[in-house]
Design a protein that fits this description.
Four copies of one chain form a homotetramer. By secondary structure, chain A is of the alpha/beta class. The first copy, chain A, has one domain: TIM Barrel. Helix content of chain A is about 35%, strand content about 20%. In chain A, the strands form five sheets. In chain A, strands 7-8-9-10-12-13-14-15 form an eight-stranded parallel barrel, surrounded by five helices. In chain A, strands 1-2 form a two-stranded antiparallel sheet. In chain A, a hairpin with a 2-residue loop joins strand 1 and strand 2. In chain A, helix 1 runs parallel beside helix 4, helix 2 packs antiparallel against helix 3 and helix 7 crosses helix 9. The longest helix of chain A has 18 residues. The first copy, chain A, is globular and about 55 Å long. The first copy, chain A, starts with a strand and ends with a strand. Chains in contact: A-B, A-C, B-D, C-D. At the A-C interface, strand 3, strand 4, helix 9, helix 10 and helix 13 of A face strand 1, strand 2, helix 3, strand 11 and helix 7 of C.
Amino acid sequence: MATEIEIGLGKKGRMAYSLDDISIVPSRRTRDPQDVSTTWQVDAYEFDVPIIGAPMDSVVSPQTAIELGELGSVGVLDLEGLWTRYEDPTEQLDTIASMKGSEAIRYMQEAYSEPIKPSLIKERLAQIREAGVTVAGALSPHCTEEFLSAVLDAGVDLFVIRGTAVSAEHVSQDHEPLNLKQLIYNLDVPVIVGGVSNYTAALHLMRTGAAGVLVGFGGGAASADRNTIGVHVPLATAISDVAEARRDYMDESGGRYVQVIADGGLGLSGDFVKALAMGADAAMLGAPLARATDAPGKGMHWGAEARHSTLPRGRRSEVGTAGTMEEILYGPSHTADGTTNFVGALRRAMASTGYVDIKSFQKCGVVVTPTR
Amino acid sequence: MATEIEIGLGKKGRMAYSLDDISIVPSRRTRDPQDVSTTWQVDAYEFDVPIIGAPMDSVVSPQTAIELGELGSVGVLDLEGLWTRYEDPTEQLDTIASMKGSEAIRYMQEAYSEPIKPSLIKERLAQIREAGVTVAGALSPHCTEEFLSAVLDAGVDLFVIRGTAVSAEHVSQDHEPLNLKQLIYNLDVPVIVGGVSNYTAALHLMRTGAAGVLVGFGGGAASADRNTIGVHVPLATAISDVAEARRDYMDESGGRYVQVIADGGLGLSGDFVKALAMGADAAMLGAPLARATDAPGKGMHWGAEARHSTLPRGRRSEVGTAGTMEEILYGPSHTADGTTNFVGALRRAMASTGYVDIKSFQKCGVVVTPTR
Amino acid sequence: MATEIEIGLGKKGRMAYSLDDISIVPSRRTRDPQDVSTTWQVDAYEFDVPIIGAPMDSVVSPQTAIELGELGSVGVLDLEGLWTRYEDPTEQLDTIASMKGSEAIRYMQEAYSEPIKPSLIKERLAQIREAGVTVAGALSPHCTEEFLSAVLDAGVDLFVIRGTAVSAEHVSQDHEPLNLKQLIYNLDVPVIVGGVSNYTAALHLMRTGAAGVLVGFGGGAASADRNTIGVHVPLATAISDVAEARRDYMDESGGRYVQVIADGGLGLSGDFVKALAMGADAAMLGAPLARATDAPGKGMHWGAEARHSTLPRGRRSEVGTAGTMEEILYGPSHTADGTTNFVGALRRAMASTGYVDIKSFQKCGVVVTPTR
Amino acid sequence: MATEIEIGLGKKGRMAYSLDDISIVPSRRTRDPQDVSTTWQVDAYEFDVPIIGAPMDSVVSPQTAIELGELGSVGVLDLEGLWTRYEDPTEQLDTIASMKGSEAIRYMQEAYSEPIKPSLIKERLAQIREAGVTVAGALSPHCTEEFLSAVLDAGVDLFVIRGTAVSAEHVSQDHEPLNLKQLIYNLDVPVIVGGVSNYTAALHLMRTGAAGVLVGFGGGAASADRNTIGVHVPLATAISDVAEARRDYMDESGGRYVQVIADGGLGLSGDFVKALAMGADAAMLGAPLARATDAPGKGMHWGAEARHSTLPRGRRSEVGTAGTMEEILYGPSHTADGTTNFVGALRRAMASTGYVDIKSFQKCGVVVTPTR
């Protein structure tokens, strides 16, 4: 395993690095940006770009799911979000976007206490399917059993099970926990599951048959896990650990390749590029897409952690707007702040380091920098 | 011992880490938050939660000691504080809370120069006992001999001897220093003593027969030891060192288990959780409880160091208010800033890492992170 | 090679240090500042000071190129800048300097879309030549083939090929990439090429016959590469790596000494001095010279990265003014902020450490400091 | 020698630590603060406290030199300061204290261009001697030869030769450099010389016969060496290195003990205490004493570096006022910001760690802390 340092006489710990701690280094070869490939594939689904819209109400509505699909990406609808609780969530979205910071979470706790309607799950997914794009929806592990049949009735192309810390060995005293292996075996759609943040948990999740695992705790800028419960694994280390699990699992499974998807804390295009450089195959983006002028969050961004009824561990954060969804993905940029042209940035980084596709770019050199 | 680095040719030193430098990492197993146990026990006294209200006038009054007891915790009254100097300290508390920052210490030096009355010690402790909760009071090493008989007359369940740096081998030229071993042997109540911050000092304190040792210098946010006298041991390292002393002492004593109690610098719920993860059995909280709307500090917080007559080494700091004492302990939270629902945060962290009780949670994995 | 640390199980990386992370240490000998030599030579051209004005429109106009030449330095004109696009770029320069930050890049994208005129390349270079100073111009690798004949017709003493990441092995699918080796062999003027940031890329560039290599990405304060594309190599490490390539290339080539020129991120005189201490022979300065009251940027500073049509990776940053070009180079200073008297600072540092010329000063001792 | 890290392929460097990077750790023993000894001795002169007033016009005037002497300390008059240039420098002191920051250095360059008068050197020193306190004056290496006879005529008890970087092997092309060994041999007063910042330079200075060496560059808060010329050695490492030189020199000289005096960058009482913990015998204080209500700087602070005619490397910084000179030395404090009661802070730190005198306190344990 890895180098450990002694924190005190009774405890050792590894050093763990965030994406801010690392930088990509050029090699001896360069390329033209237009020559590199940014395509990404999970199961039978191929996308132009390794970007997934995160299942957060500030990012993915049925409308933006369609838009992302048409742009060569895919948006995952949060099936426990406002769109499956309210016939028309416009009022709730507007209120969350306009409330003062100190009151927003209290209001969200209330707005999200409205029950989820299976009929709305079907309706929303059908709307996306009609547009002819990839249909993807997410449930938390806790609610998967209850609403899965509604999801299957509606039909999805990709199914995402997403929580803050998800394991393949959940233990409960008063209910039978979700059996991921059984569930994935029975489903005929690829399942992406997470978040995980370390080698062992990732390896166990891969063994359940998941098509992809989410690395991170989700929420990023909107998350407050470190302040509230002290749990946190910096993303550069987490991605690299899970990428190693992918390699080992591929060996033990005789060649199954599980997609490693960075999730959370990728606020700027440079973070997105570095996540791939650390070994991710794709990235689930929240805040960057919430900055779209056409995103449902209207300049605000929040995740599922922020609406927990007794222990919210997320914020509603103001991310502002940076351009259309298309400009955020493909540019052109008119500013150098890393908020637009994510794909152009990836192309430029791959060109500067001489790699032709994402798989080879994962091998690029990086340095650790003590200061920024 | 531990890895040392060369600071200069003539001096080596260990690296020492604060709780801010570390994070808890999930393992491969998760649990339901409601399944974990947060109980804590010292001697015959068992508590629902591993939280002790710090003997600071901004935190524990007779009234909040009762309240904490009813909430399953325990509050320690500072027996050298305003409540044993004044029949009714309301005016002094109000004045301290309302003064401008620059004048507060000077006023406190004056207010705390009023002599301590043994009769008030008895009266305050009696008031707490009448409420049927655990009775706990604290004296400094310097004043223990003078006021101990008053304390014993009144009767306490837990007795705390607390100073900034307390050792079992205090040397004095003009008076016989407090013989901790003798004193603890003679008392028939469990004694908690500190602060200590390293293995050797802790081991010697444990040998005096103490039921628990306080790790840290107390005061945390309110302390200025590092600026004023240059003395400081970051808490993550200090707790881990003392936890190792506990293990070694348990061996040499044939099984006596001494409680390790983190004291000071635990401002947010994440800090509290990490203190236990580093090896503490419980935590003495100051600032977090001073934020209670019903705390005597009225949004201000200060400790004994701040009232020293010639060398104050603490501040009166504005901590604001975050909710009732009950909300701070048990939630619900309506914000993700780590100021409320400390017990919920602990349950969530234990659940995310798969541990069932505090003793096993002390073994959880942690990482050291160079940036935050 | 160098010490690597494990970032995660699947990725290792070197530690890389910025100039801010290091400091020069005195030795046992001191000298008089007036006794040290600051001269610098590339091919047949000798300069009083190891300073080159960067090819940026905020720094070098035909006028300031002349001024720098007369001061014993050399200014490189950006032959793709405003001066070769407009007969009289005064209006464009004024507009860029006066626009609000958020609009500046959009305007620059427009202003720099005006085609480059070969006739203006000749005219500007001729104007500099008439003044009797060293004539130096820069093109990007992308445009070198198209405009080189105009440059050669006009005649230059030093030719600079400068991009953000330049390699000797550029790969392109739709055009024949610039063959640096062929080009340099055919030219009869010394060529300086860059930026590079690592040993291997530098070694390959040196083998093309370049007289000097630029280390860094250019732009410094005005660059946003790290945020936008995640690519960055801290300068202290980059210079030292390239200096090692110079040593190894000198050995393999039987004695060819290639100038190592630090480029970008040298905002203060202390940075400039430290760049030489790390092994640079000279420094290409942007922001420091843009602060001249007589610089064309009028207190604003920007580089070629900021005008990219779809992915700008630079800012127009406000650097203010600090004195005349002469005061910035030679003082006197009336402030200790490191913005004036760069040569005096170099002399003082060399005197404090006892070295007589830049070549020996490159051996001076440095320390790495964790905090600043 | 010490652990080195590779900065780049061509350069290695040691890690060097500032006092901010370290903290003192308690041991297993504690003492009463009143039992510790703070006395300090250089040659035949014994002082109550290990504190020297720095030769800076904002700190030591003839009046404050007397005051410091009466308080058991010693103040060193800058014999190249305003007091030896002007019959009555009140106007100059007032003007410097009242000017706007941006204009102060320019005015100082002018005010300090007034020639030094040998007669005033004699007059000022005589005034201090009349008060019956230790008489100490400082010259820079550059001016020592010119004004030494005036100093000797007047008579001093301690003579200080102080520059930013002073070596025993100064090399000059146009004048015979100061022969420190000869000079010290000829003088019959103890000489303190510096600043030095490393083992070798310190060892060579000790061999000249100096009674003490100054460690650091002086000026501290008022110094800008790092920004301007890139030269800097963090003080914790520098003191420890020089303390090791003291040990080795004591061995090679058969027992000569040279005083190691920390100089510069000791802004708060915690810094002062830590300097001694790292191995210093005493500290030369600037900013802390400039904060005296009765200091000549009137809340402003500056050193000799700030008045250099062409390359000022210091600032006039606003330090404010904290109390009388006596309160700064001995308290009482009414604030915990580390600006008053330096001696009380030292006593408290020694008591907390169980040491009885400064010589033994130099052995106290320290830790390196990555964050503050």
